Amino acid sequence: MTRIAILGAGPYGAFAAKKLSSVPGLDVTLISKKNYIHMVPAVPRNFVTQNLDGYSRTLEDIFGNSIRLIYDEVVSFDDKKATTRKNGDVAFDVLIVATGSILNREFQLPDTIDSAVEYFKEEFEKVKRAKNITVIGGGISGCELVGELAYKFKDEIAKGEKSIRLIHSSSNLLSHFEIDSVRMSIKSQLEGMNVKLYLGKQATQDGDKIYVGSEEIPSDHTIWTTGVKPATPDSPLEGLKNEKGEIKVKSTFQTLASPNIFAVGDCVDFVIKTAFPLKKWGSVLTDNVVAYVQNKPLTKQIVPPTNDDKPTCGVSLGPEQGAGQIATPFGTFKAPTFLVVQSKSKTMLKGKLSQF
């Protein structure tokens, strides 16, 4: 039996474990700090719904006894073993690193599904009690969170009982990977939802006080949606990571440092940190792992994103609004609003984990 170890039970790690578990001759071990998989893009919605039904699944529910599950944190790995905090070394023949990214404190979820439910209940009580809510960071996560809060508390905002502010260091919301018409649409919609925008401004925090320049912003609850970085364990392997700590991979998802180590997701050195087509990229990864095990050429490849790409994406602003774009061979174009609402805003990807 060929031993396959997978680090991380996010969408890519879970997809790889599920697909490889059905391949004869492979012994699959999945190592995860969490005992569940969560639809991370839905976190802004979870802040106000407090309901994880359709957004989370336990790993035991997904895998049963088809693979070996280890609930632990990997502190380091080389080309032969992964070292966990509590369970010691886990030897492997092939390793898949799918550890994702370290999110800001409000988006970093607890390790058990029961704790996650309690966490969102506590977070909702905080935003419910707060009169002045400030979100710092106007990327997709920040905009979507503000949109959810503005929709949920629209009556209180209209009465002047609650205010929501969004501070973003760039003069435009989102990033350069979104086309201008989408960025302007999101700005216009948030303003229409009575969100106070501070664009091109740097936020600082001094204790409980928030400042934009020298101006103090009234805030009794502040949420940061900035500071994401790759969650890659330590490793002595030379040339494995770049200066940002991201794992350097080929278009086959094989690492440059060692042929028996593959990596995928937010922990790799791709310039765009977003959800790519899971089945397409996951299939490329697993097909190449099987080819490697069978001593065959790795023929499946993806086209790594570049700084010039404008990928297909949608930005939800509550269940009834949003904006997005569709990438085509002829360019990237703004998507019809109804399409964004139906494909993302309405359900925030609820039920998508049923594919595992």
From TrEMBL:
Q: Residue limits of the FAD/NAD(P)-binding domain?
A: 3-274
- Which species? Ogataea haglerorum
- Which terms in the GO cellular component ontology are assigned? cytoplasm
Recorded hits in InterPro entries, A to Z, give: FAD/NAD-bd_sf (IPR036188), FAD/NAD-binding_dom (IPR023753)
Segments spanning the bilayer are none
The record's section on PANTHER family has: APOPTOSIS-INDUCING FACTOR 1, FERROPTOSIS SUPPRESSOR PROTEIN 1
Question: Which keywords appear in this protein's UniProt record, sorted alphabetically?
Answer: FAD, Flavoprotein, Oxidoreductase
Extract the GO molecular function terms from the UniProt entry.
electron-transferring-flavoprotein dehydrogenase activity; flavin adenine dinucleotide binding
Name the UniProt record assigns to this protein: FAD/NAD(P)-binding domain-containing protein
Q: Gene3D superfamilies, alphabetically?
A: 3.50.50.100
- Please state which protein family the record places this protein in: Belongs to the FAD-dependent oxidoreductase family.
